[in-house]
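Field reference: "sequence" (input) and "structure" (output). Example, LAS1L protein:
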Amino acid sequence: ARKRPKLLRTVVAWRGRAEWDQVMVGLYCGDSRLQQEALDRVSAWKSRYGPKMPLAVDCTSELIRCKVLDSSGRLKSDELILSYGLALVRFVNLITERKQKMVSIPLRQLAKEADIPIWVVDLRHELTHGKLPPLALCRKGCDVVLDWLRKTYWSRQLGNNLCEESEDEDEEEQEGMEANAELDNDVWE
C-alpha cells in the first residue's frame, strides 16, 4: 500500500469547512441581517487568528460592513464615502503591498497584473490624494472589488465543496484546507 504524504497542519480560526462556507455565503447573500451575522463570525475569527487572518477575508468583511452600514440608512453620504473609501484604499494597498520589491512598482502595473480594473486604482488615488468622489462611484468600486474577491479568492476556496463527499473525504479536505490556509493567502496576495 502506498503511504500518503503527511500534510502540514496549520491552526485556523474557523471550526471547519461548513463554517467557512456558511460565512462566505452569508457575506455575499445580499441580506443585511445574514451579512451582519457573517461579519460577527469574521470578527470572532479575527480575535482568535489575529494578524494571520487572510487578507481577502479581512478586505471582504470591511467592504461588506460598508454595504450593511449603507443599507441601514444611519450614515450620511459623506460618512459613507469615507467608509467605502477607507475599505477601498486598504484593499488596493494590502493586495499590492507584498508585490512591491526593493524598487517601487507603480500601483497601476501591480493592479493590472492582478487583473484589478485600473479605474479602481485611480479611485484609490482620488480617495487618498484628491477630492472625494461621488458616493455612487464608491458603491460601484465596492461592488467591483467584492466581485473580484469572490472570483479570485472565495470561489477558489469553495471550489471542491460543490458535490457531496464521504465523511473521510470531508476530513481530508478540511486537513488540506487548514494546511494550505497560509499558502492560499500568499497566492492571493
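DSSP finds nine helices and no strands in the chain.
Residues 55-159 form one domain.
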